[in-house]
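Allow me, if you will, to draw on your knowledge of protein folds for a short while. I have a record of one protein: its chain in single-letter code and its fold written as discrete structure tokens. The full record is reproduced below for your convenience:
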Amino acid sequence: MKVLAAMSGGVDSAVAAARAHEAGQEVTGVHLALSRNPASYRSGARGCCTIEDSNDARRAADVIGIPFYVWDLSERFHADVVEDFVEEYAAGRTPNPCLRCNEKIKFAAVLDRALALGFDAVATGHYAQLVDGPAGSELHRSVDEGKDQSYVLGVLSAEQVARAVFPLGGSRKSEVRVEARERGLAVADKPDSHDICFISDGDTGGWLAERLAERELAHAGAIVDETGERLGDHEGSYRFTVGQRRGLRIGTPAPDGKPRYVLDIEPVSGTVTVGPRDSLAVSSLSAGRPVWCGAAPTGSSLEGTVQLRAHGAEHRASVTWGTDALAVSFHEPAEGVAPGQAVVVYDGSRVVGSATITATAR
């Protein structure tokens, strides 16, 4: 089998490529150049978009003994991930750029090009497992619960899952680092990437302020409580997300002296509503654009669990769906649920599918 291994320059993707090669697959490594100006994205070892990372990936490919190329996907990444991120915040929603990158870049643009070039599959260093099920390949959680990345892969279609290879799904991160050292890979002790790779200094609010101001979308507004009483002002609703507690800058304390949390964001007027933690509790949600990660489930409902953020808790829930929509009713209230987030549905360890949250109910 001919496999294209996406190599970010980190330890996980390097070991994944090495394992695929050792398994007898015909492997070619590729590093994705996601910015025409790498200095404009994250620097050092904290991201996956730098010249340093490209060089690390190339050295790893040399050690493994596989061909290596760099693909320039900067325009596609900017349009499908960076611009989407800006648009979502401007609309008062909370996006996940890593999830969008998997959907639009690694398993759409890259896979499409790989298939056109005669490859059979794309391998990555994600911590998730593929299991042969009765109706085809199924996506499951990794054995390493702390590193499990099945949530950010929940946007993959059945066709994309069938063309994916995740060599690390049955391993723990500590084992992967030991293996990298044994293989002589220089990235064995390289720190994991974190935060948003295309924001160079980690200041998401400041980064958004520059781009939204340029497009006249950065509107100031009021911070109000649940009764509508004005408590303060802000410079832009994009600086807030549902469930946020810090950085509200409200001069007037709550009557009970307890912290306030962001409950709602109204982007047109710029109004940000805050209130007590109890008011964050959500009993149900609706979501659009459902995607099934394997064979579409039979019937129109499922008793399972859902996950609402990359490393968030699982919530027991009743899930129902139609052609273009999905609804979730929680068995116990969930907190900090924001439109724009992905809700990923699980049946045990299996990822059933995902959808984008459009509304919540308390």
Remarks:
- The first strand starts at residue 2 and ends at 6.
- The chain has seven helices and 17 strands.
- The chain has a mean pLDDT of 90.
